């Protein structure tokens, strides 16, 4: 009995090793999907699922992005609807550029959400950090989720940074150094009304470096310990 209780308690914490899923909808209409980078054998499944648009939200490290674009095109997805946004997960030198890249991805997703027939998949490599950043912000735009619930439900529980206990510490630290503050800053813009589904302008990124979020930023570990 004691072991059963321990197992149940363990299942309640959101800190776990999240194996990036292939396809997971983040909206009720099931038009916007998050995921990890699809394997070669999964490309055709995207088309069968009705995916018409793909956002590759990562920089190319070898030739994996070029290969995916080639495979997506061969599977029948319109090349004009395949978007590679070379977003970094660390060593971000320009927060303004990173913000603009996020807005670009959110704009594509918003356009798809308003269409009748399109569906979009957005992904990075593993589907945990960069992907979760987009999912958390898009949930705020679409569902009016607050910052805390978006951070927990769409990021930490999906393996973002320290939300994945098996993630190497140096990776989690880099994500929290570069991506977590960016999430909180863009989230602040959404809460202020500067960003909404009707207005996703990159102009809001002009002063992103100077946006004050002191005392607001929390990591997944800090949120977990406060539960």
SSE layout:
Layout: H1 2-12, E1 24-25, E2 32-35, H2 43-49, E3 53-56, H3 64-74, E4 82-84, H4 95-113, E5 120-123, H5 130-143, H6 147-154, H7 169-192, H8 220-225
Parallel strand pairs: 2-5, 3-4, 3-5
Antiparallel strand pairs: 1-2
Task: Provide a compact summary of the structure.
The chain has helices spanning 2-12, 43-49, 64-74, 95-113, 130-143, 147-154, 169-192, 220-225; strands at 24-25, 32-35, 53-56, 82-84, 120-123.
What does this structure look like?
The protein has helices at 2-12, 43-49, 64-74, 95-113, 130-143, 147-154, 169-192, 220-225, and strands at residues 24-25, 32-35, 53-56, 82-84, 120-123. With 227 residues, it is of the alpha/beta class. It contains eight helices and five strands; from the N terminus they run H-E-E-H-E-H-E-H-E-H-H-H-H. Mean pLDDT is 89; it is low at 1-18. A five-stranded mixed β-sheet has the order 1-2-5-3-4, with helices on both faces. Helix 5 packs across helix 6. Helices cover 44% and strands 7% of the residues. The chain has a single domain (16-225), classed as Alpha-Beta Complex (Protein-Tyrosine Phosphatase, Chain A). The relative contact order is 0.16.
